[in-house]
Amino acid sequence: MHAALIKGMNGVAVPLSDTDTQASVPEMATELQDGEFLVDICKNSDGLGLEIESINGMLLVAKLKQGPMTAWNATNVGDPDLVVRAGDRIISVNGTRGDSTVLIDELKRDSRLRLLMRHAREFRVDIDKAGRDLGICVISGNVKLDMLKISGLRSGVVEDWGLANPGSEVLVGDRIIEVNGISNDPPNMLEELRASSKLAMVVIRPA
């Protein structure tokens, strides 16, 4: 699985009046599917306040930075379904769908954007290593990511968890976003995976 990080989407919030938004963002008759939501946002010359990741043709949020998207989240903090999170997928930009290359071009084209987004599937994994191997390989150490990406699986307690919990199996490509209450800190999350026997992990799977 090959992942490429795209730079240049960080920025500072630019206030918009309702009139500006209505005049600049195209109206879309969109029937939202489960987990999907719309984001109306404006970027400035620096972008949206995101690090984005292209993987298997999907365009994903890799990390949120201070900027328009965190301002959007603050405005919608009372409705978790509208809050953008790392791992969420950008489905369309101003009504245009396509692979990550098409969507990145659309993100660059206009300053006022309507994004159709989809939350990643999220589930918990609670295990006790009890001296056994965890059985996963993770990618860490990239400052543009707030997650640990699972790059490989082998025999171990994570595999046993999946056998005992059908529907919550951990797969290659899943991302660990929290370990024993530690989040947004991949080095400490990785150390917690190594050092602790009992692990409560929150895992997401882009959809």
UniProtKB/TrEMBL annotation:
Q: Where is the signal peptide?
A: none
InterPro entries linked: PDZ (IPR001478), PDZ_sf (IPR036034)
UniProt protein name? PDZ domain-containing protein
Write down the PROSITE patterns for this protein, in alphabetical order: PDZ
| UniProt domain PDZ: residue ranges | 38-131, 124-207
